[in-house]
Amino acid sequence: MPRKTYTKAMNEALDLCLKKDPSVFVIGLGVPDPKGIFGAISGLKKKYGSKRVMDMPIAENAMTGICIGAAINGMRPVLTHQRVDFSLLALDQVINNAAKWYYMFGGQQSVPLVIKMTIGMGWGQGPQHSQNLQATYAHIPGLKVVMPSTAADAKGLMISAIEDNNPVIFIDHRWLHDTFGQVPNGHHKVPIGKAKVIKKGSGFTIVSTSYMTLEIMKALPLLEKLGIEPEVIDLRTIKPLDEKTIFNSVMKTGRLLVADLGHREFGVAAEIITRVSENPKIKLKVKPQRVTSPDYPTPSSPALSANYYPRHTDIALKVVEMLRRDKKEITRLIAEEKKFNKIPSDVPDERFMGPF
Amino acid sequence: MVVSKLTSLYKKILLIRLVEEAVAERYQEREMRCPVHLSIGQEAVAAGVCEKLKKDDIVYSTHRCHAHYLAKGGDLNRMIAEIYGKETGCAKGRGGSMHLIDLEVGFGGATPIVGNSLPVSVGAAFANKLKGNKKVVVAFLGDGTTETGVFHESLNFAVLHNLSILFVCENNFFSVYTHIKERQHTRPIYKLVQSYGMEALQSDGNDVESVYKAASKAIKRIRSGKGPIFLEFLTYRHREHCGPFYDDHLSYRDQKEVKMWFKKDPVKNFENYLLNKKYLSSDEAEKIKTGISKNISKAFQFAKKSPFPKLEKEFEKLIYAS
Lengths: 356, 322
Description:
CATH architecture of the largest domain in chain A: 3-Layer(aba) Sandwich
Distance between the termini of chain B: 49 Å
CATH superfamily of the largest domain in chain A: Thiamin diphosphate (ThDP)-binding fold, Pyr/PP domains
Number of strands of chain B: 8
Helix content of chain B: 40-55%
Distance between the termini of chain A: 29 Å
Order of helices and strands of chain B: HHEHHEHEHEEEHEHEHHHH
CATH superfamily of the domain at 34-236 and 250-264 in chain B: Thiamin diphosphate (ThDP)-binding fold, Pyr/PP domains
Number of helices of chain A: 13
CATH topology of the domain at 34-236 and 250-264 in chain B: Rossmann fold
CATH class of the domain at 34-236 and 250-264 in chain B: Alpha Beta
Largest sheet of chain A: 7 strands, mixed
Radius of gyration of chain A: 20 Å
Order of helices and strands of chain A: EHEHEHEHHEHEHEEEEHEEHEHEHHH
Largest sheet of chain B: 6 strands, parallel
Structural class of chain A: alpha/beta
Strand content of chain B: 5-15%
Number of helices of chain B: 12
Strand order of the largest sheet of chain B: 2-1-3-4-8-7
CATH architecture of the domain at 34-236 and 250-264 in chain B: 3-Layer(aba) Sandwich
Oligomer: heterodimer
Number of domains of chain A: 2
Number of strands of chain A: 14
């Protein structure tokens, strides 16, 4: 399987769907511009023309309504926002129309619409450019919410989202865009609503979403040195939630930690922990825990944001804590790692120069 | 105008008036358990505009949608059943009075948030353009919508892409109890729209014949690919914003204004005009009324007899399409 970036994988999915189905079109602010939505749309206008791949006025609410109107009349629009935060201007159309159209008219028309939005992070983007609002959308019946964390899933879930007959919120994280992964060729679909056990383990379950999966992968070598081998579930779809995969794992391990970049209160982690706690068949050995962003807006200053986002070290510490193990060894390992790993906390890697 | 066209318009406005009056009369039985925003007084705009549309042209509407639904040929039985919350309703009882839909006759749906259905109708016209067909979309809106942000966004896009859509604004001067002068500058709505680079006109909304003429001209032009047009019709609601009653004892409307507009009753005046000009005999008028009343009675019987929707156990199937 060829190795490709997450962005290239999204681009390939859009390319395949545009090619296969003439009712698909891509629309969004800056879609055909030189940066091509962080590269996800690059080259597609040249290939499919401005009737299929197009820019739009700065009018998120009407444009969402327009895409809904097009969707119920035979089209399959993909609407993009360069930041999740911008999508908030369109909540009337998303929540009142896209999510409800199928139900409120007795199932006569569905809304096959994908709204792709990017979560920003780091580089001082601050309170209005780096929010994680997956729980906001996942709260609404009628929407589906996907958050792929690997290149292969970015491709597979994008194709599934476009082919789904319902509105799908597709959330990609800026810090995943340049990550590489093996991406299957051709019409590779990943089912919506299916989580994936990305690492088998025992005695501990970690459920994670989006970019946090990457942080968990970084935490694993630290934990391994202590002989801790947790099972890791990449959620991939937030709504509908694949509780079966989570239950199966936690039933076996008896311990649950959820990592999600949303705020702590009323978030994705809270929902998963509730569902596990409600399940009478699951006996937990220790109270379930969550690693999330704190309950205040993202600060801009690098000094303030350094401690804002949960990182792999927080996850490793939390796991050790939940296992009631001595924290001395993990603290030493983290300190040692910090000596060698001098990457600033506000960029994914040292070479990263934007666009942010 | 040929007599058959005048008769057809008469049947349409009369149907709307009589259905709305029947809803108002029976509303107090408390079996129609959802809000109703009656179109009484505003029938001419719906009838005059929809008369010129083809079956597969699509209409979208607002909370005050009964007139538009009926004028486009929406099924009466299924409308009344919907208001009664029955499984046989046009939205299977999920939507109620404010969510009428009849796709078979091109009534694409109504939604009750001010400005909410406007971009959806623009999107329908956008789909028509992308698919390359000649269908026309009509977006009904009230004066209140012209104050929303989405109004600006939607009109800008419609002009930008030269879409085949007719915007029909029923300016009844009131948003619930608030007069338009409390909400907008005094320049007329159609003048605001002209600044978008769109053709926009204002006309009497209580004379069904002149509504029909204005709409016909506009629809012909739109269908020839010349882009969107905005028609502002001045009209007046007879009853309260929401519900079956008259509410002028609340004194929120100027009494002179109310009297003036009641004199301009679109149904009575048109009927008198047809009788005076002998386009219609009183016998014929009576026959038409009796026929419509019979259908209305049948529709209420149908609604009352119809079953309620069953309690939903597997609600996921109702929320998501397969």
